[in-house]
Write a structure and sequence with these properties.
160 residues, five-stranded antiparallel beta sheet, Beta-Lactamase, 5 strands, globular, alpha+beta
Length: 160
């Protein structure tokens, strides 16, 4: 795989910032499986996406945020207890974007992806050990959000 990365990095105007493989080696097939589950499950699509996000993105945890109250509606294992003031700093919640969650050990921050969802909700997923969430990962989440609600309009992705 290294020669391929070197060839891509050698292209004019291209910078390779980070490369990782899917944790379970399933590639985009896992994205499609999550989308199918979102459309067919008895669970709300937001719950399926939150439960799946750590595997989708090689993240440690995820939570579902009610953006009108800043209450956490659902959390995966390892999701930290987060103060409302820290959650408020992750705004805006009407566009998908990368951010930093303060409050880690020794003043460290955690890279997070904030994904705008319908019905005053947002997915927040974090990687305490980094790296930052890439634009391509945010695009994948935005796509799942746009397709996984069965025609309802989720919020647009932020541009970088």
């Amino acid at each position: 795989m290294q020669p391929l990365v070197e060839d891509i990095a050698a292209l004019d105007g291209v910078t390779v910032q980070h490369m990782s493989s899917y944790r379970w080696g399933d590639g985009l097939g896992y994205d499609l499986a999550v989308l199918e589950h979102m459309l067919a499950s008895d669970l709300p699509p937001a719950h399926v996406l939150v439960i799946s996000a750590p595997l989708l993105l090689d993240a440690r945890w995820a939570l579902l945020l009610d953006t009108s109250t800043l209450d956490v509606a659902l959390r995966t294992p390892f999701a930290p207890e987060v103060e409302r003031a820290d959650l408020a700093r992750l705004a805006p919640f009407d566009a998908t974007h990368a951010a930093q969650l303060p409050g880690g050990p020794g003043g460290a921050t955690t890279p997070v992806a904030v994904v705008a969802l319908p019905a005053d909700q947002a997915l927040v997923t974090g990687r305490p050990d980094g790296p930052q969430f890439a634009a391509s990962e945010l695009a994948r989440l935005s796509y799942l959000t746009s397709e996984g609600w069965g025609g309802r309009e989720p919020a647009p992705a932020a541009t970088e």
